[in-house]
Amino acid sequence: MENGPPPPSRQREGGRPSLKRGEGDFRSVGQAGTSGRPLEVGEGTYLMDTQMFGESDFGGVYFIEDKRRTLIETGTSRVYGNVLEALDQLRVDHATVENVVVTHIHLDHAGGAGFLMDRFPKARLYVHERGLPHLASPQRLLESASRALGASFQDYGTLKPIPEERMVALKGGEVLDLGGRELEFVSTPGHARHHLAVLDRSSRAIFTGDAAGIYFPRDRRLIPTTPFPEFDLPDAVRAMETMARLNPRVLLYTHFGPRKDALRALRDQQVEYERWDRRARETRRAMGLEEAAAAVYDEWYADVEAFPRPFVERTIATNLRGFYRFYERTGADAA
Ligand SMILES: [Zn+2]
Q: Ligand 1 center to residue 154 CA distance, Å?
């Protein structure tokens, strides 16, 4: 027997209702949000709100309590302290974390990885083989992110190099055994070429990273995530079909939290991507980027309450730029 602390689910303090055991059920974040505390969203699966970009219920990191303790995603380097604090709240000894998985290497998913790996001496980091070299030597990735993000780059922080021998390169199809459950890596390019979704085979939950777009739980709204420079529309739609074929019971979005009607969410998001494609082709010809973001906000997202207008508009502008770049790269909008 190991002498580590008992599972956090038994140590939780009062005030938070327990999940019903044995049903493999999942809890939604709902109107109230996570209230800044780690939330057990499924048996042994905790959602930690990193408060990324100063917003609640936008940037998530998942912790899985199992024989081999596992973190999925890391948040940016600016918020890795919040991840450590959330582990403290769960009474998880940092040294006992064995696996860190990142769905892809964008800074809001993997930026904190190098800093967290310093605190997790036993851990190995799992990343797509195309992403691994950039986490070992981040300079080029940081330059590319700075070009892609412009003024908001500073909110994303930085990357700390991770020694290659502490990382495991994946292609998709591999299985990671946590002791009580198995995680399967699923190749899901589109948002980025090196994107992996992660299927929990026992609960049939999918950690979607950015492959299923973004979900605002408090508004129950879907919004694509289609960033410059690698976004590819047909690949992104195929990735959602790939995940649907796995027949998930719940999607665990990095942005943000669980959504239980998984197949419907995937189908609806595909419709969103197609609608955005049509609108992006129009705005690209008709107006500048900022004007286009404001127009799309007014048309489709003015009722969003969970996030302030400038924040949502920045997301919209990032998405439109990704579509425009996709058209340039593929000649998809050549008239
Ligand atoms: Zn991303």
A: 16
d(CA 166, CA 99): 10
Distance CA(302)–CA(86), nearest Å, equals 33
What is the average pLDDT across 227-253?
97
Ligand 1: distance of its center to the CA of 228 in Å? Answer: 10
Give the angle subtended at the CA of 78 by the CAs of 74 and 80, to the nearest 5°. 40
Q: What is the token pair recorded at 170?
A: 């994946």
How many whole angstroms from 106 Cα to the centroid of ligand 1? Answer: 5
To the nearest whole percent, how much of the chain has pLDDT over 90? 82
Cα separation, 33 vs 219, whole angstroms: 10
Backbone angles phi and psi of 167, in degrees to 5: -115, 150
Give strand pairing partners of 72.
62, 101
H or E stretch covering 77: none
pTM of the model: 0.91
Distance CA 317, CA 92 (A): 39
CA-to-CA distance for 264 and 89, rounded, in angstroms?
A: 34
Q: Find the 23 Cα to ligand 1 centroid distance in Å.
A: 32
Pairing verdict, β 124-128 and 167-170: parallel
Q: Tell me what the mean pLDDT of segment 231-258 comes to.
A: 98
pLDDT digit string, tens, across residues 260-306: 999 999 999 999 999 999 999 999 999 999 999 999 999 999 999 99
Q: Is residue 168 classed as helix, strand or coil in its secondary structure? A: strand
Q: How far is the CA of 150 from the centre of ligand 1 (A)?
A: 16
Domains of the chain, CATH where assigned:
24-272 (3.60.15.10)
Residue 252 alpha carbon to ligand 1 centre in Å: 15
Q: Is the pLDDT of residue 23 over 60?
A: no
